[in-house]
Amino acid sequence: MVFGYISPGNEEKLSIGNCEMAKVIFILIVLIGAVLADIVIPDRLDWADFQKYDICNPVVAAQCFSDMDSNHDKIVTKAERDAYYSKNNARIEALNQAMYDSDFKTADSNGDGYVSPAEMDAYGKSLDIIVDSAFENYVNSLDADNDGRLSKTEFVNFEKGWPSANLRFDFDN
């Protein structure tokens, strides 16, 4: 799958089929979010309720329940869920930070602590991103200090924002 960027206001660059698919995906995400927002999960869950409320992926639900049930009383309380999520969120953030550090080192090919436009184009191409004027405009919009290059913080903002900014899909590949 090839990804690219459509800046706001340039949606006409999407083909009709891709545009319709993007709309369908967006609507599904909104509907799923709305359904999930209406679900009130009880403060105490036994194994049956844990499965009923689909707290974890069914493939790993038993291990997830065991991991959350810190006092091993076969009940997962809201406090135990919150502690589990907090611990996992910290672990995920550490993994993300390690990925950002590694990706920044890759993109900053000359090691000067900044990613130049040429380095960013090369980095984008290495990820099969369509490097065009829309991509370059997006990257330029992240250059908060307007020095013509991306600092590590600006680069991390690229990585955090790219999936949500990426609206052009090539469903044929």
From TrEMBL:
- Keywords of this protein's UniProt record, alphabetized? Calcium, Membrane, Transmembrane, Transmembrane helix
Spans through the membrane: 21-41
The record's section on Gene3D superfamilies has: EF-hand
Pfam families from the UniProt entry: EF-hand_7 (PF13499)
Q: Which molecular function term from Gene Ontology is one that the record holds?
A: calcium ion binding
Q: Which residues form the EF-hand domain?
A: 95-130
Protein name as it appears in the record: EF-hand domain-containing protein
Give the organism, scientific name: Panagrellus redivivus
